[in-house]
């Protein structure tokens, strides 16, 4: 999460000064060799981290070992390419990476790249040869799906055998899918002989067992052809970026290096806006294909670019076009995106094979799904409010940009105008964002007081307060969280819990990210002497930890809800605890604060909720499913006998169907968009459909239903 915008100018200036000092030390080295971009990037990044990170690391053998282990996992985490002898070669650098950084070299990266390139080439011949012959799915074989439970192959023959089983498993999965497709065809009734010609459909023939197996291998071959095509397009800059990110990640999981393209993606996620043409693209069969057009965007208004078009060439205004055929998607996007009011000319191939040049004036593209939305819930004559907040967005580069705190404040005002008697604030899957917006948002529900404490690696904590005595909403409040609620979500949930202002409900705990990050643009940090080898990208580094006002950290442990509900994702090993090199939990002195005068009767509400959940068929079925998934997750070795695999899949489908049937049998909740929003939408069909898509899945949401019941208990 970025650091607060509170006094941010001074803080950024200090951080930039640290990196500028580090870079000048680098520039004024004694030898006369020209500086290389990779040396400058790694050295400046590590020197800056050593001074500015929350928990600086010493450049020693322990640091080297961490980088070695993590890079090896990123290089070949599946253990499908490198041989044990390759790994042994790499181990010569296990305790030398710190020295390489000091020397300005990267022998470990170079050797890893060389070995991996050779093994990728070797494996390309292996998979095509194996997939050329049918598999025997009656043989009593098993395949280990968990990479941590296997070792690197000792010989090329052992590697081939591992790939044979891997490809057999992949083929078995596709074959099972094809068998299901064929079964549906057989079950379809024959078309009426009285059907009109325009209504006639051409049905594909039912396949034999041999044809289905061949089709399954064909699909797997296509998948791996695409996969290896992407590997072949990996550039030296991509490998350097991955290596730099590995080094950053050894400080903590949220300290990251962003190549220039990655920083653009981060900004889009934080703001919900970018400048471009407004088309979603995909890479398919070596082509850049238009998947969809964003409603209201520059492409939408221009009208000629359509879903299904293939982009062949890209030109900036009147400049010569550049062919993007065979390009990676992320590389092509750098040409297609661009500043507002600039022209891009796309040469596209239409589905009828005709080509056309389409000029588009770029504009700001808004991703509406990024922003807060609200609805009303009618529950036994009581009108309740619901707010969904996907993340804590803020535009740090534009004071006029949208802010999540300001938007939630507007949604609260609209809900109050609807005379709701309680509100559910949904932070499930909200990974965080702006710290200041979390502070301001908590302040919407209390009069004034401390919200969160922030402390650097040394010194006393700083208390961030809500100084606005106004309370925008004072009624009953439920905050929904799950294990993917992180960072700013945890700040808000913890503050509401510590003030006893509302009830926190959800899975056993939130994610556990209790750290604050700041992004440094390395091009700004490095002086003009390096202009010839820029751009360098950006570094997101952890500079502080945040603490609850009760003194405890949310780092590592997360926030434990007041009311814990069964959760479909509880079987997954997700959260800060599962991350490598995560900072540990600690606590500091509590801040002084007063709990909410009308605090809810948590114990009473918890007991009533527990009784409902225990008697609820949907929750019981969900709990049973989770237990079975836990068992399956631990049992990572799968049978390569088709009959056994099909039986397991059919059992899983039966369980899922049973859960869905119970869900469908339940009376859906009456959830509708706000009257104010419907008036604003008017007859705009795109916005009407968006509002419908927003409320539809909520009507059968059993967690939301229980939150509504708790609100009813509190009223």
TrEMBL record:
One of its GO terms (biological process) is signal transduction. One of its GO terms (cellular component) is outer membrane-bounded periplasmic space. Residues 267-337 form the PDZ domain. Keywords: Hydrolase, Membrane, Protease, Serine protease, Transmembrane, Transmembrane helix. Residues 191-204 have a biased composition (Polar residues). The chain crosses the membrane at residues 6-27. Residues 183-204 are annotated as: Disordered. GO terms for molecular function: endopeptidase activity; serine-type peptidase activity. InterPro entries: ClpP/crotonase-like_dom_sf, PDZ, PDZ_sf, Peptidase_S41A, Tail-specific_protease, Tail_Prtase_C, TSP_N. Belongs to the peptidase S41A family. PANTHER family: CARBOXYL-TERMINAL-PROCESSING PEPTIDASE 3, CHLOROPLASTIC, TAIL-SPECIFIC PROTEASE. This is Carboxyl-terminal processing protease. It comes from Hymenobacter actinosclerus.
